[in-house]
Amino acid sequence: MTTATKLLTREALSDGIDRLAAVDEDVALALARIGYPPPRQRDPGFATLLRIMVAQQLSTRSAAAIWGRVEQACLPLVTAERFLALGEEAFRTIGFSRQKMAYGRGLAEAVAARALDLEALAALSEEEAIAAIAALKGFGRWSAEIYLLFALGRADVFPADDLGLQIGMQRLKGLDARPKRKAMEALAEPWRPLRGCGAIFLWHYYGGATLDAAAALRRA
What we know:
The protein folds into 2 domains: 10-39 and 156-216, Endonuclease Iii, domain 2 (Orthogonal Bundle); 46-150, Endonuclease III, domain 1 (Orthogonal Bundle), CATH 1.10.340.30. The chain is built from 13 helices and no strands. Residues 1-5 and 208-220 have low confidence and may be disordered. The radius of gyration is 18 Å and the shape is elongated. It starts with 9 loop residues before the first helix and ends with a helix. The protein has helices at residues 10-23, 25-34, 46-55, 60-73, 80-84, 88-94, 98-112, 126-134, 141-150, 163-173, 181-188, 195-207, 211-216. The chain is mostly helical. Helices cover 60% and strands 0% of the residues. Helix 3 packs antiparallel against helix 7 (98-112), helix 3 packs across helix 9 and helix 8 (126-134) crosses helix 9 (141-150).
């Protein structure tokens, strides 16, 4: 079964959260206190996937600064071809570690050669799309799930390993300990097929985390 891209617009996200509130009293109570999160849409393509990788294990501020230098180095647009044209001196100026330089180049080479067809991801099932991205070195399941949620608008994607989501769920449900993946999936099961809307609400409940802030909270 394939799924076309459907952006999680403000209206679609709010409607999804309303539906979650109708089946989960904790969501309803939290929604009454903090209101709706803004939409977290990002343009699908190489730049967004590269930015997700750049933000891994960095603070929000550091990731934003590095990404700003990537954009400057790749003017007018961050594309796989422009990224591959950068030399090692440019990467040092940007602030890439050798590891992230290798990961970024690996992504750019895969996209440029169409070994990873980002346009075709929208027509794949969630697990197929996740597998295609996670096959790249430096891109695990979390990176793929974040891309599917924010760039492809997959409303049921739930990055259960995300630290921000786990803390948000702990607070939402009044749990003594932070839930791990298995517990997170069980807690989010009643939210199907809108677990992605629930994830965005949990980031909002945690403290208004955006995609970039959420990336800094990623578990290694």
